[in-house]
Specification:
Elements: H1 11-23, H2 33-51, H3 62-79
């Protein structure tokens, strides 16, 4: 077990929420809860997954990286 409140236990989630706050929440002035419901999914699905480059993925968006990974794994199975 780890210490309570240790941010290194959940580094991926901490990193994601840091990015969400800095690149979306702090830049928009939400006036209603509906604004939040509308903007957050857009940021996650369109910006974070399709446009934003991730250094851990070779500076590719997650969707592009997954396509390349699937393409390469299907090639390996054809050789099997």
């Amino acid at each position: 077990m780890s210490a309570k409140g240790n941010p290194y236990d959940n580094a991926f989630a901490e990193s994601f929420f840091k990015t969400l706050k800095q690149e979306e929440v702090y830049l928009w002035q939400y006036e209603t809860f509906f604004d939040v419901i509308e903007r957050i999914p857009y940021f996650i699905l369109d910006v974070y997954n399709r446009k934003r480059l991730h250094s851990s993925l070779g500076y590719r968006p997650p969707e592009e990286y997954e396509r390349l990974l699937a393409k390469n794994s299907s090639r390996e199975c054809m050789v099997c």
